[in-house]
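A quick word before the example. In earlier lectures we treated sequence and structure as two separate objects. From today on, think of them as two lines of the same record. Here is ABC transporter ATP-binding protein written that way.
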Amino acid sequence: MLKITGIKKSFGRKSVLKNVSMIAKPGQLIHISGINGSGKSTIFKIVTGLLEADSGKVELDHGDVIGALIENPSFLEYESAMTNLHFLANLNHRYNEKRVRNLLQQFELDPDDSQAIAKYSVGMRQKVGIIQAVMEEQNIILLDEPTRGIDQESIGQFLTLLNRLKQENKTVIIASHDQIDEINYDQGLTLQNGILLNE
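And the structure line, produced from the sequence above:
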């Protein structure tokens, strides 16, 4: 379970997060909406430890593993998708080649394609970013604008993945300003003026 309590974050004189609190339980699919620059990515960066909050706290249960796609994913640009995913999963010694190959195929990417990621389209890169957020069986998954640049068919594949993650009792939090009607969220939140509000 992820519990965020009273998170505050400022950049210089600009207060981005004023008092952010939420609880995300296993099996929940949660949507955080908000305009660009409202602080959605900042919340995810604080949860993953990429940024430090000015105050407040983030609590996880023992054994929780976070997977995240935040803003534009970074890769080893001159390596293939498979090489990149192998490298990333090996950082935590959690590489499962069969699972990675299956995920690539589900998103219609060829695991044996040697093409460098530098030549991938925005949508293809986004698919690889989604895969790295779930490939290690992470149980808390943070997805920042996950459908950016993805075509309609791939959105269908993404919906299939979300349903499977929910069935596996994993927590998924999606931050986006786009609304995909086919996604049935358990909870909707809006980040407005630095505060999370129930929709």
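Notice the following. The domain at 2-198 is CATH 3.40.50.300 (Rossmann fold). We will return to this example when we discuss secondary structure assignment.
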